[in-house]
Amino acid sequence: MIAVTGLGAISSVGANTRELRDAIRQGRTGIGPLTRFDCGTVAARPVCQVPELPPGPGSASHRLALAAADEAVRDAGCDARRAAILVGTTTGGISDSERWYLSHLAGAEPDPGPLRHHAASTISHAVAQALGSAGPRVTLSTACSSGANTITM
Fold first, then answer.
1. What is the pLDDT of residue 99?
2. Which of 53, 56, 127, 43 is nearest to 85 (CA)?
3. What's the rounded Cα separation, in Å, for the pair 5 and 71?
């Protein structure tokens, strides 16, 4: 049995569940040009990307997960200290790792700090720490199906 007690979302059409629900009801799409990074000479296909990343520490993936988790806990009205943290994601801080690597290849000595966010498992840990959760922490990474697969756990 699955019991959803709180919802949290951040997407290409909304920064919270209300905005996402409204976009779905209105038939709005979040598909648009890629603006998050430069593809160089490679033609980018249309994408769905979050227009603005939430502020805070960590990689983009960490900040997105923290924003959605915070909304879900508030929506549930639960004590997060006893909650299990399950995160479905495709990556950890891969974009930070790529920037570090390119800087390193160019001969710089970049700060290795951002590399600690590389592993996908660091996201559930960061969410648990931010929420003060002492419960289990699980990260499921199964590409695009990660979120849906995590709901079934």
1. 82
2. 127
3. 12
